[in-house]
Amino acid sequence: MKNPNGYGTVTKLSGNRRKPYIVKEGVSGRQKPIGYAATREEGLIMLANYNNDPWDIETDKITFQELYELWLEKRAVKLGDSNRSSLKSAYKHCSKLKKLKYKQVKSYQMQDCIDSCGCGYSTQGAIKNLFGHLDRFAMELDVISKCCSDLLTSEPIPETSKEIFTDEEVSRLWENQNFPWVDSVLFFLYTGFRISEMIELKISAVDLEAEIMTGGTKTAAGKNRVVPIHSRIQHIVQKRVEQSQSGYLFEYNGKKLNQTQYRALWAEIMGKLEMNHTPHECRHTFRSRLDSAGANKVCIDRIMGHKSKGTGERVYTHKNIEELKLNIELITN
């Protein structure tokens, strides 16, 4: 009788073997082997036991790498794309622990991965965060009885003061708008989008006729918000739409852009134009310019995706879209 979809398989291997039947699970879709059996009947029993309790693991033997891979399959899928990507990158700095039994990994060994990674506070924080996720997962599976990650430290986030772009710098950007990727800086300065929001913006979310874009991430107030296309960047947006091959407004070599690629491009622009800003400072500049121009506070919050006491239900009617357009056009330079 055929097993149901996703149940797994018992297959006989070639050659003279003591246990010629390989048993593979089918839940993940990758047909991962879970053991070998002397007879088909024994293999079917093993498969049935596995499906009855697929999380039945040998807590004394599971390694750091095996726990990470199980966590990646069972828990990481519930995280956001950006967070999951950050944690997967952090795992690369934990290679010295891969073969160790997880229950034997001590806090000083975890701390050494953080201290020796050779990276700044952001990566150190991600490694610490990964250890926290794995420890909690290991506790859930009764692999460990205490969280060593509670003792870890990482470099603190440095205190920074955001510097907005000056009018002279904005003018310099317009003078150099044909330099590769300067259009993206201008896009930020006239929309208030975050990097993650710019990267995720698809051309299908751009309505050139209505002169609006629908996008945004991070918060409930920020998701799927309407941002008018300022008249000064309409040609930039239109050109990006027409040239898109991937379906995203901003792409890299015809494919979806990622933050690492963009930050490298940003550094090149800042060096070329002799400026010293972060992408997020465009967002601060955008709000500051709207505020200085006398824009309505509720409209500013709507455009930037901030929660505002005066917004009520976030329903974008023709009337309040026109109101957003009038306010964003108060930025005249």
Task: Explain what you see.
- With 333 residues, the chain is mainly alpha-helical.
- It is elongated, with a radius of gyration of 26 Å.
- It is 43% helix and 8% strand.
- The protein has three domains: 9-52; 64-151, DNA polymerase, domain 1, CATH 1.10.150; 167-328, hpI Integrase, Chain A (Orthogonal Bundle).
- The strands form three sheets. It has a three-stranded antiparallel beta sheet with strand order 1-2-3, covered by helices on one side. The protein has a three-stranded antiparallel beta sheet with strand order 4-5-6. Strands 7-8 form a two-stranded antiparallel ribbon.
- It has 13 helices and eight strands.
- The model has no long low-confidence stretch (mean pLDDT 87).
Short synopsis of the structure:
With 333 residues, the protein is mainly alpha-helical.
Q: Output the helix-strand order.
A: EEEHHHHHHHHEEEHEEHHHH
The coarse silhouette is elongated
Number of H- or I-type helical stretches? 13
Radius of gyration: 26 Å
Class of secondary structure makeup: mainly alpha
CATH class of the largest domain: Mainly Alpha
The number of distinct structural domains comes to 3
Q: How many strands, what sense, and barrel or not for the largest sheet?
A: 3 strands, antiparallel
Hey, roughly how much beta strand do the residues contain?
5-15%
CATH architecture of the largest domain: Orthogonal Bundle
CATH fold assignment of the largest domain? hpI Integrase, Chain A
Percent of residues in helices: 40-55%
State the total count of DSSP E strands.
8
Q: Look at the structure and name the CATH superfamily of the largest domain.
A: Intergrase catalytic core
Widest sheet: strand order?
1-2-3
Intertermini distance: 74 Å
Mean pLDDT across all amino acids: 87
Return residue spans where pLDDT drops below 50 for at least 5 consecutive residues: none
